[in-house]
Amino acid sequence: MTGLSHFLALAALAAVTSAQAAELPAEIKQAGTLKLTVNSTYAPMEYRDPASNELVGLDIDLAIELAKRLGVKIVWSETPFAELIPSLQTRRADFIISGISDRASRRETADFVDYVATGPQFFVMADSGAKEATDLCGKKVGTTRSTSFPVEIEKWSKQNCEPAGKPAIQYVPGENSIDVRNQLKQGRIDAAVQGSETLPYAQTQEPGKYRVVGEPFARGYQGIMFRKDDVALREVVTEKLSAMIADGSYKSVLDKWGLGANAVAQPMLNAAPQ
């Protein structure tokens, strides 16, 4: 192919791509706003800055950049983690970007555009005697009840504790990650589980208090959650997120929050294996 014909082929491809580019749904475009709701207890993904009380975090930065590229403003609201999915289903939110894991059980009514790698990880108080994950067999381990982590803990326990003749982990529920860490500090549980993306931040906020035990014991993704019938919105957000990955702005946001290692190479639809 000559240089000119190669250029013309690329130009044609660009024209077709542009013609097929996803469009923002008319009602959102006309309103000029996106309604987004978050559970602001999951630092560094989304939380209230203690100094300014501003809503900040990795998801907040990503959403603001996406909205800018979509040409709309964000109207934020906050809700408990357990109310995130209902807020999407009742259309109080246009989509959810709030540290929510892509899970097969959640795909019956929603689609996930996966954008951050994650995985559950054990951690203990720094003075704990636990040196490796199997030391937690038979111990009380807390995690947020409305996440996928209770199931992952049970699965890990059945694979690693009981076959070795050790007692099963005793799961203790918590309302959110702050509640779980408080239970750990109060000695009501022996260990806790959170997503690997939150632990570095927790350790910087309370230096020397926590110690991670082992590697993440499952792999998954956090996803931007859309209603099944909102295909156009899902596609246009995916397109803008792909552009952010390509131009480096996505990586810059992750690096800002110390989570560059959790980056994905491209947005993925419903890709988590669980």
Q: How would you explain this protein's 3D organization?
A:
The protein is α/β, with parallel strands linked by helices. The protein contains nine helices and 13 strands. The protein has helices at about 5-20, 25-30, 60-70, 85-90, 150-160, 175-185, 200-205, 230-245, 250-255; strands at about 35-40, 40, 45-50, 55, 75-80, 110-120, 120-125, 140-145, 170-175, 190-195, 210-215, 220-225, 265-270. The strands form four sheets. The protein has a five-stranded mixed beta sheet with strand order 9-8-10-7-11, sandwiched between helices. Strands 2-3-4 form a three-stranded antiparallel beta sheet, covered by helices on one side. Strands 12-6-13 form a three-stranded antiparallel beta sheet, with helices on one face. A hairpin with a 6-residue loop joins strand 3 and strand 4 (about 55). The radius of gyration is 21 Å and the shape is globular. It starts with a helix and ends in a 5-residue tail after the last strand. Residues about 1-20 have low confidence and may be disordered.
The helix-strand sequence is: HHEEEEHEHEEEHEHEHEEHHE
Poorly predicted residue ranges: 1-19
The helix tally amounts to: 9
State which percent range the strand residues make up: 15-25%
Shape: globular
Radius of gyration: 21 Å
Topology at a glance:
Blueprint: H1 3-19, H2 26-31, E1 33-38, E2 41-42, E3 46-48, E4 55-56, H3 58-70, E5 73-78, H4 84-89, E6 110-118, E7 120-125, E8 140-144, H5 149-160, E9 170-174, H6 177-185, E10 191-195, H7 199-205, E11 210-213, E12 220-227, H8 231-247, H9 249-256, E13 263-269
Parallel strand pairs: 1-5, 8-9, 8-10
Antiparallel strand pairs: 2-3, 3-4, 6-12, 6-13, 7-10, 7-11
